[in-house]
Amino acid sequence: MAAPTPTTRQTPTGFKMPDGYQALITFANKPAVQLWERQVKPPGLDGGDGIDTTTMHNVRWRTKANRHLITLAEASAMCAYDPDSYNDLLSLLNSPQSITVRFPDNSTLAFFGYMQKAEFGELKEGEFPEVTVQITPTNQDPTSTSEQAPVFTAAPGT
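Below the sequence we write its predicted structure tokens.
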């Protein structure tokens, strides 16, 4: 193969979100859980660290190879909450299920995962009480244990 050659950047044709409002997270086991999202961090994508393929035959440069498996990284949400939701959050903890992130343009990302953590902020006079929920994607159907990729559904008209 020849040396790499420059490629000209092309103008994107898609839709860029002008604002992060309104993003929501839905747990299939409790779609009406008493949480009010204030900030949502959708799951990221991670290809993993490169595999060092350097040998004693390299002359000047260390070489790497890409991995084959990818990771759907953790998601989180900072939310207002009803104290009565404590038992609901407890029931969601470590409970594998389908989780949906709805983006501001109404596109969705559905994946299998579980709520790993619900961390309550300090309760102080003059400050809004919040809980941060951390979600771990599993990419595994909890019923069949088969590997399942996340499903992205574009918003109508995009």
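The chain has a mean pLDDT of 96.
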